[in-house]
Structures are given as structure tokens and as C-alpha cells.
Design brief:
By secondary structure, the chain is mainly α. Helix content is 65%, strand content 3%. The chain has a two-stranded antiparallel ribbon with strand order 1-4. Strands 2-3 form a two-stranded antiparallel sheet.
Length: 562
Amino acid sequence: MAQSEPVVPVTGRLRSAFGLAAGSAVLLVVGPLVGVVDPSAPPAFTSWPLLAMLAVLPVLIAGVFLVRGRALAAGGVLTAAAVFAPGRALVDLQIAADPLYASRPELFRPVSLDVLPTAPGLWLLVAGHVLATAAGVLAAGRHGVPVESADAEDEPGRRGRFAGALVVGLLGGIGLLVVPFTSTDVYVFARGPMDSPAFAMLGGVLVAAAAPLAGALAASSPVPAGRRGGLLGAAAVITAISLPPLVTALVTDGLDVSWGPVVALLAAGAFAGLSRPLGREDTSAGPAATAGEAPPVELAGQHRLQVAAGVIGVLAGLAAVGGALGRQLVLPEGLPTPISYADRQLWPAGIAVGALGLLTIFRSSGSAVRPAFTVSLAALPLAGTAALDAVLAATRIGSVQPGAGAWLTVLSLVLGLIAGGVAGLAGAVEREELGRPEVKAPLTVLVPIALAGLFALGAFGMPALVAPDLTAPAIWDFRVASWGLLIGLLSVLTAAVLAAASRSPRAAALLLGAAVVAGVRALELPLTGARAAGSAPGPGTWLAVACAVALVVAAVASAARR
């Protein structure tokens, strides 16, 4: 059966490496706040919350591994982050050489061709990359890994995982080499690494080369924990590099999305997905898995992860409610603020996620509620992308800017993503301890699950609201709100498939979490129907209600079985 990797004592060298990485994260957070150039050229949008969260992501992952006593995985995260750091430092140094050719609107947006003097924040960024490099050098190597923990896999297996990680890394490198956005702004140059000046070109090439290099180094680690940490570290850094230009292009007038960051983010997701199978240690030792309804075994690490996921989930729910309360748009003085309808679904989504997150915190209910909480997080992008779609449409008018409510909505999406990752890690810890028993769900459970899956296709694929002058968001006519519909559909279908092969308490929780997502979809009509004259229920509303009912019936039937 699958077993947790051996706990290796945290050495003083690794503690020093983590301290340097933490210092690097602080510098990378403070740098954009201080400013990298003269204040006359502010960022294209209020980007520092996004940049700060991305800066601390690798350190956060390494810290989670250290708390669990997984020194090898933590070292892998820091080593992978260090592979990218020299190239990132050179890319930032282009700002000192010639800011106009740096193409960094998330840090500053020029409004003229005048020379922009650098500010102290630039040197804080460069120093942060230097510390990240030093942290990776200290963390590199095995450092006390017991010989018996090394992988005894045969050579074909090693070559296979090496080739898979290398291919994913090459795709990520291609995405990082492409122009990060397109621009119609005469002062914002859209340039990729290959058509940039020396510093940006050399740094961009090093960053692109770091993606396959980090993947290959992680896959070639002799221990599963090193592979898992290295792949997660590479995924975190690629996300930190490619997500800001993508968000900038989405929210900034005059800039449009390029396919490069999208490919890089897909590669980051593939690295994160590979970290699980390549980081699994198979051994015949350990207790056999039971095929019946084994009582949940509450590990200390699992409980800490559930507490962390629950706290982050509560914050995500509060941010969503704050997004519904706050102003989504800031208009010039004298113009009336339009009535906002699209953000009203944030109310049920935020309340449901916050309530389930709160229950996940407590030891008595955390393990039982966690599956429902994890699935319910999909309600945040379902409601949040609909609100942001309206904001992005309005901000195409240059004088209209996103308000505090819009930024709180973005924050809820980011926190929801983090909470889902931490909750998923807690579930992985539980499965490693309990094993994977063979569960055969009866027809009384499978039939409503199958019906719910069919209803979900129409609930998220067809409009919930129809009106003469309204074009409702749809998966088939893709726009920002379509991401939320797609995530909602995939979450319900995934929960249904997993529930059919899960223990009855976990299956019931998964289905109830999916019912929350379907319920939020069904509330679109009563909450937002007044936005269009002559509105009427669309087929998506009735199918969402049917999907939610089928999921609840399946959950009740699953909870009742032995």
C-alpha cells in the first residue's frame, strides 16, 4: 500500500535555508510596495496583493512540509525555486538598464517616454532573488537522507518519470519564452525574451530553461519526497512568473492576453499533478487496508492541515461576502453608481464556504466535513468570475476602475485556491493512512449520482436566465464568467465520480459539497434576474435545482448504507 515517506530530522543547514527563503519572500513582498521606479508610473492595477501571495507560495509549501517533518520535500521545494532565481534577477535588472523595455506593467506602467529613475524596491527584488538562490544552494543535496529511503526503482521507471517531467518542463519553457501579453498602448511594449535587450533576454532565456531543468532535477531525485517537493516548488515558481502578466492583460485597458502564460500555467498544473504519483513511495510494509468502513484515523499532520484549510476557507468566505458588500466599480465623481447584480451570488457562496470552513477547523467535525468543504470551494469561482466579468466589461471605459469589492472578490478566489490545495493535501494524508478500500456503491446511490451528473451538464452548460436583451454567460461562448461555469461543472462531476468509489461518510460529504455548488448556480435567477427586463427562468435554473436535489438524495442514500 502507499505509505508516507520516512520522517528525516530537519538539519541546521535546512533550517538556515528556510530562513533565507523566508527572508527572500519578505523582500519580494516589500519590493513592489516600495516601488521599483518613480511614483509617476504606478502599476497598471493594484497588483501587490497578488504579487505578495505568489512570492510567499514556495516558502509556504516548504513550511508545510517542515511542519510535517518532511525535510526532504521541503529541501526539494527550495532547490527548485533557486533554479529560477538567477534568471528572475536578470529580468528585474532590465528595469535599472531601461525601464521602458522591461515590459512589467504589474510593477509600473509608463505614461510617457521620459526616463524613469529606479526606486529602492527594485534592489529589494534583486536581493530577494539572491537570497532565494542561496537558500536553494543550502537545501540542495540529500543531507542526511538514510540510504534505505532511496528509491530502488528500476532504470526504465527512472527514465519514464524523467522523460515525463522533462516534456512538461519544455512546454512550460516554451510558454515562458512567448510574449506575455499583447499591447495597443504606445508606452507599454509587449516583448518576449527573444526580442528584448540584453538583461531581459538573458534572464528570460534562463527562466525558460529553468522550467525543464527544475523538472528534470526533481524527477531524478533518488527519494520520492525530493521528487514531490521539487515538482511542487517548480509549479509554484512558474505560477508566480506567468500569472501576473495574465491577470494584468485581463484587467488593464490596452493590453490583451497572450497564449504564453496560459501554456506556462498549464505546465505548472501538470507539475503539481505529477508530484503526487512521482512522489509516492510504494512498500509492502505497513498495515493492510480494510475493505469495510474503517473509522477515520486522525493524524496530527492531517489535523493541522485541516485547521489551516478551514482558517483559509473562512477568510475566503469573508472576502467573498466583502466583495458583495463593497463597491465593484469606482466611477468618476458626479456619475451615478449603477446597481450591481452580478456580485449577489457571492453572498450564498461566501456564507456556505465560510460555514463549512469553520466546521473543518474543529477536530470533532473536521475529517467528516472536509470533503464537502473542498468541493464547495468551487462556488467561489462560480460566483466570483460572474462578478468580475461585469467589472472587466465596465472598466473598458478608461475612467471606470475596479472598486474594493472587486479586489476582495479576487482575494476570495486566490484564498479559495489555496484552501483547496491545503484541504487536498489533508485528504492525501488520510488516504495514505487508511489505504484505498474497494467500495461498491449500491444502485440506490449510483442512480441519483448518475442523474445528478446528467443534470449538471445542462445546469452549467445552459443559461440560467433568459431575456430579450441579455446574452448570458455560457461555457460554449467563452468569456471570464465561463471559467466559473466550467469549474463548477468539473467539481460536481468529479465529486460524483469520487463518491461512487468512496466510503459512505466521505461519499455523502462529497455529494453535499457538490449540492452547494449546484445550489449557488440555481440561485442566479432569484438573485440577479432583475438585471434584465423581461427575464425568465432558463433551462439551466431548473436543471441546477434538479441536480442539487439528486445530489442530496444520493448523499442521504450513501449515509444510510453500511
